[in-house]
């Protein structure tokens, strides 16, 4: 069962081929460069790679405007290079997930060009058209403040086309059976080339009804089941990780009551409450979010993350909570984006404070689900706020102190490497941190190993333990007769807490597996633990002979 559900205890690493390493010398990352860094990822402890789009694209939205679903963008290499990469990853025990961008195409895609050229085109109904501009055309934009409408007039088609995203990304009519059949074909193609699954971009928009007469879109959840069935027939342990920023009441619609739809989803509810906890040292909304998202099918799993390639979306928080997060991490206007989020990387958001960065990642690894790490966060990379929109957090990986951070031999990389300030590649890079036993990189590697040795978090059930302090979070996980208990202090000052592990006689002994500061209960079964400012403790409950006591069922 563990092998079948590999994603339950995985470590997923998100990266863009374009920004990881350039082996061709043209200033753009490529698959040959990525191949050369597989040993680095293997050494870090990564078990799965999530690749951002690399298919052929005009590049109007960092590859999310696909113009050919069946080919690699020539800047990154060839299909042969991709297959060599997936083979190399498999040799190292690393699975590959790729972005599945099927809500829209590029307007340069041959399908759209054919569709706009003739109303009788076989592809005309693959897109969403209207003879007149709908009354609600100024509503529902994904990028408010940048995007002005969701309907744009096309002179050649003599009609308006629908685009939930930018105007160069016309939406596919995903209700069309022919479009659905093509989506299955796309998935089957990449599965055949070695991928283990997909991160489904904008899942709620894919399954929503579209059209000029649609006032309130209706989600077609059966579509998700169709995708799942197809994938599992082609490759039994392949998965879909859905991007769906939804309310907890809708979780089972995406997972399926019987776990027959999406295997994984990102937990946006917990992510937003987590940053409020960082800003306020108040874990109550975070506990509430975890409890609200706790129910899920046995085969389903949450993907947990701190930062990703988009803005930190705070739309689910209250106005007061959102204001607190903005004030703490993105007070200046150029740090904010789309009237709802922050566009910075994690390290500068936390002021470069190693105590806070360590605590944040320790907390990520201890949350109920599978951790997803953004490339460069393991060394504390920064952002370049001079770059537009989300590009500020998509700068090249910083490998060394060599020119352009060891990313490329070209003097003009397409995306500029961070060269100035405390986050410049001269100060933040892999090579120097590799040699420093106390670096963030080496700490992250040790933390990943510890997380992988605690499958209770990925597989087990969690309980929130009362510490009497809203700024100290205590979580206990139970699985197969074993338990781990993890404490985090979100305060900027030390905190002493007294608590009952609530697990009987085994709970009298807590063995620290992070730094050796173990704890024994008093006569009443309570533990008293002192935590440093932004401190944490990872405990094995009962002793280190837990593997001998693990139950098979």
Automatic annotation (TrEMBL):
Annotated keywords: Carbohydrate metabolism, Glycosidase, Hydrolase
Catalytic function, reaction form: Endohydrolysis of (1->4)-alpha-D-glucosidic linkages in polysaccharides containing three or more (1->4)-alpha-linked D-glucose units
Record bears the keyword DNA-binding: no
Keyword Transferase on entry: no
Pfam families: Alpha-amylase (PF00128), SupH-like_C (PF22157)
Domain of life per record: Bacteria
EC id: 3.2.1.1
Domain called Glycosyl hydrolase family 13 catalytic: residue spans: 14-418
Record-linked PANTHER family: ALPHA-AMYLASE FAMILY MEMBER, MALTOSE ALPHA-D-GLUCOSYLTRANSFERASE
Similarity comment: family membership: Belongs to the glycosyl hydrolase 13 family.
Name of the protein: Alpha-amylase
């Amino acid at each position: 069962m563990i092998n079948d559900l590999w994603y339950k205890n995985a470590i997923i690493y998100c990266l863009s081929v374009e920004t990881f390493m350039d082996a061709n010398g043209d200033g753009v990352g490529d698959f040959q460069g990525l191949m050369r860094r597989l040993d680095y990822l293997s050494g870090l402890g990564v078990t799965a790679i999530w690749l951002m789009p690399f298919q052929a694209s005009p590049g109007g939205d960092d590859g999310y405007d696909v113009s050919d679903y069946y080919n690699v963008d020539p800047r990154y290499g060839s299909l042969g290079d991709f297959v060599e990469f997936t083979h190399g990853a498999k040799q190292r025990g690393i699975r590959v997930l790729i972005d599945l961008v099927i809500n829209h195409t590029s307007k340069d895609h041959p399908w759209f060009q054919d569709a706009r050229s003739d109303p009788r085109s076989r592809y005309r109904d693959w897109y969403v058209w209207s003879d007149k501009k709908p009354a609600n055309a100024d509503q529902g934009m994904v990028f408010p403040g940048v995007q002005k409408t969701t309907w744009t007039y096309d002179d050649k088609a003599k009609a308006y086309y629908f685009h939930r995203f930018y105007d160069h990304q016309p939406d596919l009519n995903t209700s069309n059976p022919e479009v659905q059949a093509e989506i299955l074909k796309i998935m089957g193609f990449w599965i055949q080339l070695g991928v283990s699954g997909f991160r489904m971009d904008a899942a709620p928009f894919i399954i929503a009804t579209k059209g000029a007469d649609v006032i309130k879109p209706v989600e077609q959840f059966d579509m998700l089941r169709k995708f799942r069935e197809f994938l599992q027939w082609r490759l039994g342990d392949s998965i879909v990780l859905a991007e769906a920023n939804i309310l907890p009441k809708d979780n089972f619609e995406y997972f399926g009551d019987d776990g027959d739809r999406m295997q994984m989803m990102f937990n946006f509810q917990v992510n937003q409450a987590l940053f409020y906890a960082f800003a306020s040292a108040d874990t109550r909304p975070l506990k509430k979010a975890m409890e609200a998202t706790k129910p899920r099918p046995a085969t389903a799993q949450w993907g947990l993350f701190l930062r990703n390639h988009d803005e930190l979306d705070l739309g689910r928080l209250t106005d007061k909570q959102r204001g607190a997060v903005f004030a703490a991490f993105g007070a200046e206007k150029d740090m904010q984006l789309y009237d709802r989020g922050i566009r910075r990387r994690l390290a500068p958001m936390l002021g470069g404070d190693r105590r806070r960065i360590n605590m944040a990642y320790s907390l990520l690894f201890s949350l109920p689900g599978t951790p997803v790490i953004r490339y460069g966060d393991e060394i504390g990379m920064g952002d370049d706020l001079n770059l537009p929109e989300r590009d500020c957090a998509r700068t090249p990986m910083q490998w060394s102190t060599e020119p352009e951070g060891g990313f490329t031999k070209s003097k003009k990389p397409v995306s500029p490497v961070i060269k100035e300030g405390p986050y410049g590649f001269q100060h933040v890079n892999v090579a120097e941190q590799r040699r420093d036993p106390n670096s963030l990189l080496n700490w992250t590697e040790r933390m990943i190993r510890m997380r992988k040795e605690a499958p209770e978090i990925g597989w087990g059930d969690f309980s929130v333990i009362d510490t009497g302090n809203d700024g100290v979070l205590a979580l206990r996980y139970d699985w197969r007769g074993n338990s781990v208990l993890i404490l985090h202090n979100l305060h900027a000052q030390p905190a002493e807490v007294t608590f009952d592990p609530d697990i009987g006689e085994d709970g009298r002994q807590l063995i620290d597996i992070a730094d050796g500061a173990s704890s024994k209960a008093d006569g009443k079964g309570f533990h008293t633990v002192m935590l440093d400012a932004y401190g944490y403790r990872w405990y094995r409950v009962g002793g280190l002979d837990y593997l001998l006591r693990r139950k098979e069922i």
